[in-house]
Amino acid sequence: VDGFIASPQREHNAALIYGVDSGLVRERAGKITKAILGDMANDGFAKTELSEAELLADPPRLADELSAVSMMCSKRVIIIRDAGDKLTKIIEQAASCFHKDNFLVVIADELASKSSLRAFFEKNTSCAALACYRDEIRDIQAVIRQKFEAAGINYERGVLDYLAGQLGNDRYVTYQEIEKLIIYAGDEKKLSLN
Questions:
Q1: pLDDT by residue (tens digit) across 50-76?
Q2: Which residues contact 156 (CB under 8 A, 6 or more apart)?
Q3: What global pTM score does this model have?
Q4: Residue 77: which of 56, 108, 107, 101 has the closest Cα?
Q5: Tens-digit pLDDT profile for residues 170-179
Q6: Quick check: helix, strand or coil at residue 80?
Q7: Helix (H) / strand (E) containing 121
Q8: How far does CA 9 lie from the centroid of its chain?
Q9: Mean pLDDT of the chain
Q10: 90-147 tens-digit pLDDT
């Protein structure tokens, strides 16, 4: 997954990012956008966001967006938020417009194994499907370690174990709670359970 996120356009033109951990879904979508657009990740000419409702009201719009070439930037990312199976046919029909200068990111909640949207992305060789499930204890511990080390925080082993048991249902919430603890550690940059 990390290799794909670092270089998503190597072999793919689109990615479905879905799952119960909405924070991890957002994080991965952001990293893919940043990997493709670099410093232009927040540029309105380089990034277009659409909703399922917008595409259901105007199905040809996706093909138009995927076919468009920007005069302002060399690459574009088209993001569809809150996607579901109602979009499968629209995306299938627009897939003929995939090309190297535009990348499609489709964001969805949990999708069943029988989902037509998920099946399309899993079977299409120019697409990728990334599932985002809740972090396991070792994943949470790695995230905590990484953030604490980056901030120069010293901590007892018990702190890591305690936090890993309390966090992990949503990656975004985990990051917010870690940031609070970094502020709480203050100038001493130390954390303990006492």
A1: 999 999 999 999 999 999 887 777 889
A2: 191, 192, 193
A3: 0.80
A4: 101
A5: 888 899 999 9
A6: strand
A7: helix 116-123
A8: 15
A9: 91
A10: 999 999 999 888 999 999 999 999 999 999 999 999 999 999 988 788 889 999 999 9
| Distance of alpha carbon 139 from alpha carbon 117, whole angstroms | 28
Q: Which of 89, 82, 68, 74 is nearest to 22 (CA)?
A: 82
Strand partners, 104: 14, 78
Count of positions (residues) in the chain: 194
Q: What whole-number distance in Å separates Cα of residue 102 and Cα of residue 47?
A: 10
Helix (H) or strand (E) run with residue 66 in it: helix 60-67
Contact (CB, 8 A) for 116 and 88: yes
At residue 185, φ and ψ (nearest 5 deg) are -65, -25
Q: At what angle do helices 137-151 and 171-185 cross, to 10 degrees?
A: 40
